[in-house]
């Protein structure tokens, strides 16, 4: 750049010495008719022609060889568009290195907006063994073992039956026994033998949850209800020396809610609260005198009492068959 600056200074001195009233020409070819009037400044490729009156300033790549060494001679290859040259030398980008290979095949991938249900229930049979415990009877405990069988004709609706066996598992509480002995006050109680019910199940909610930031479990909540029978009898506590009762059939209704957590696609654990409601024939609190004491018509109350047996079921659920295939729209 020092050589270029020196060339410009020498050219300017020659320009001033040639003539004081030189014209500045920015035309494409300079002014060839100027003759002796003075040298022209030419910013074009022609550099001002062959006019011998003075040296021309040439800012082009090749310079002007007709004006002498003083005006625009050889500067050692340095000159012209310096910024453009620097940009070419430093900013050249190899586009070939950044080109990506052309895609020869189109990628096809199925993307589902909603994830499919983890365990499909439709057209499957549900087998549910469970243990049952009574919650609301403080005088007699009614535990039972139960077995449920449901058929899912849709993914959220099922019809089925459940069977409960009570006999041999019940026990009277110590509270009722000692109160009866000490105060001569008795609370009539009943004993259950078994229960059988026709049920309908509806699943309104299902989802999943994470445990310990590692395990993901699928779950569903359901409503169950139906009608059936219970075989029960009064327990003689007022006059046990004379009275004796046999089991009889009662019409019962049940309604409950539950939750089921899937361990696999065919195994789940569940818990539910269900209320079994029926009309019970209870023992009479009054004892007839004389021979009427032996009459069975005097052993029970005149009107049956509404009984609510709130129970908790805890057990397992097995879905058959174990495998299934999706046939719903995806």
The rounded distance between the terminal residues' Cα atoms is 73 Å
Percent strand equals 35-45%
| Residue windows where pLDDT falls under 50 for at least 5 positions | 1-22, 27-39, 44-55, 62-78
How many discrete domains? 2
Report the CATH C-level class of the largest domain: Mainly Beta
Biggest sheet overview = 8 strands, antiparallel, barrel
Shape: elongated
Key terms for this structure?
330 residues; mainly beta; Porin; eight-stranded antiparallel β-barrel; two-stranded antiparallel ribbon; 5 helices; 37% strand; disordered N terminus
How is this structure best described in words?
The chain is mostly beta strands and 330 residues long. The protein is built from five helices and ten strands. It has two domains: 2-86, no CATH class; 124-320, Porin, CATH 2.40.160. Helix content is 14%, strand content 37%. The strands form two sheets. Strands 1-3-4-6-7-8-9-10 form an eight-stranded antiparallel β-barrel. It has a two-stranded antiparallel ribbon with strand order 2-5. A hairpin with a 4-residue loop joins strand 8 and strand 9. Residues 1-22, 27-39, 44-55 and 62-78 have low confidence and may be disordered.
């Amino acid at each position: 750049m020092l050589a270029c600056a020196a060339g410009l200074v020498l050219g300017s001195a020659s320009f001033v010495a040639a003539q004081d009233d030189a014209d500045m020409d920015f035309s494409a070819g300079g002014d060839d008719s100027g003759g002796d009037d003075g040298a022209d400044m030419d910013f074009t490729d022609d550099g001002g022609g062959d006019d011998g009156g003075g040296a021309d300033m040439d800012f082009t790549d090749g310079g002007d060889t007709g004006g002498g060494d003083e005006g625009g001679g050889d500067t050692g290859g340095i000159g012209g568009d310096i910024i453009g040259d620097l940009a070419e030398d430093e900013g050249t980008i190899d586009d070939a290195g950044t080109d990506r290979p052309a895609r020869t095949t189109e990628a096809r991938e199925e993307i589902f907006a909603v994830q499919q249900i983890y365990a499909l229930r439709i057209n499957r049979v549900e087998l549910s063994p469970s243990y049952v415990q009574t919650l609301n009877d403080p005088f007699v405990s009614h535990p039972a073992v139960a077995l449920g069988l449901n058929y899912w004709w849709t993914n959220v609706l099922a019809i089925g039956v459940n069977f409960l066996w009570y006999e041999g598992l019940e026990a009277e509480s110590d509270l009722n026994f000692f109160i009866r002995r000490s105060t001569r006050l008795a609370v009539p109680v009943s004993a259950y033998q078994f229960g059988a019910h026709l049920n309908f199940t509806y699943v309104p909610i299902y989802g999943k949850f994470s445990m310990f930031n590692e395990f993901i479990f699928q779950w569903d909540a359901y409503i169950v209800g139906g009608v059936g029978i219970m075989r029960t009898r009064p327990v003689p506590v007022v006059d046990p020396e004379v009275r004796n009762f046999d089991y009889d059939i009662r019409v019962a209704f049940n309604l409950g809610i539950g939750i089921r957590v899937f361990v696999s696609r065919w195994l789940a654990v569940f818990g539910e609260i269900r209320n079994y409601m029926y009309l019970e024939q209870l023992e009479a609190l009054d004892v007839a005198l004389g021979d009427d004491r032996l009459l069975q018509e005097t052993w029970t109350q005149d009107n049956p009492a509404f009984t609510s047996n709130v129970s908790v079921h805890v057990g397992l659920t097995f879905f058959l068959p174990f495998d299934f295939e999706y046939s719903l729209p995806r």
